[in-house]
Write a structure and sequence with these properties.
7 helices
């Protein structure tokens, strides 16, 4: 069954329209479940469609493509990529789906998990009854000088961006981390998508994201998926989120940071087992 793509206006001035991809459940017995997928940085509907399709036998799946990601429509305007702006956007998205408190589940991947947590903790809209997360972080240890890049002209920033990619690819190759393909993938995604918006997301959201000491406020069950070996996010960090008695952590046999890549069916089965155990 082909997905339905819709645009939702989440801001008037400047205008922002985000894309949603809706994948209806394939079995009536699971049509009461709705999982909203929030892709991580550089990801979008095209990358997360296999994950959504893998979930269809067990749930309705909706991919939310945040502003600045994929083919969402957003302006090159500083200040609209903050945590507060994304929280407001998320609430608009959920309301547009006609969902109320405890009627849905959110699956966030990497920075998408960060968006999920900030929305759950500080957002004003309906809240989920279950959270799912791929390699969650409590904060990002970004260099102190990173915000300075936001003041560099775009044409210079593009040159610096290319230099960073070359250096980072060489670093991973020399260190043998196995993540050189991830750097190449990132380079391709930056070319394909709006790199200006993606940089603003890093400068306005990632740099300021920090929920250390607030995990206990996440008072719903949380199932986490981590890679066995992840150079970017150490698997043991996810254990800090094991606060709720029904929370769970699943380790996937992969060394790639993109833990879902090629493992969609396995992850979907694990999610279904978890939700069934909780009688959701």
């Amino acid at each position: 069954m082909k997905e339905e793509i819709v645009f939702v206006k989440t801001r008037d001035d400047p205008e922002v329209k985000i894309r949603l991809a809706k994948f209806p459940a394939l079995k009536k017995e699971f049509s009461h479940r709705t999982i909203i997928l929030v892709p991580g940085w550089l990801n979008a509907i095209d990358v997360f469609s296999p994950m959504a399709k893998a979930l269809q036998p067990f749930s309705n799946a909706v991919i939310y493509e945040p502003r600045g990601f994929g083919e969402s429509i957003s302006a090159h305007k500083k200040g609209i990529y903050s945590i507060e702006e994304y929280n407001e956007e998320f609430a608009t998205v959920i309301n547009s789906l006609g969902l109320k408190d405890k009627e849905f589940i959110i699956l966030g991947s990497c920075s998408g998990a960060s968006q999920t947590f900030t929305y759950f903790l500080d957002g004003k809209g309906p809240k989920p009854n279950i959270l799912l997360a791929f390699h969650p972080e409590e904060y990002y240890n970004t260099p102190f000088w990173l915000p300075i890049l936001g003041w560099i002209p775009t044409f210079l920033m593009k040159i610096i961006q290319k230099m960073i990619i070359v250096i980072y690819r060489f670093y991973h190759k020399v260190r043998g981390t196995g993540e050189s393909p991830t750097v190449t993938w990132s380079e391709e995604r930056l070319k394909k998508n709006d790199d200006w918006c993606l940089r603003r997301f890093v400068l306005e959201f990632i740099v300021k994201y920090d929920i250390r000491g607030r995990q206990e406020e996440i008072n719903v069950p949380l199932q986490m998926f981590v890679a066995g070996k992840d150079h970017f996010v150490k698997p043991e960090k996810a254990k800090k989120f094991l606060i709720h008695p029904d929370s769970d952590i699943v380790q996937i046999v992969t060394s790639l940071h993109r833990v879902h890549d090629g493992n969609e069916e396995e992850i979907a089965e694990k999610i279904n087992g978890y939700l069934s155990k909780l009688k959701i």
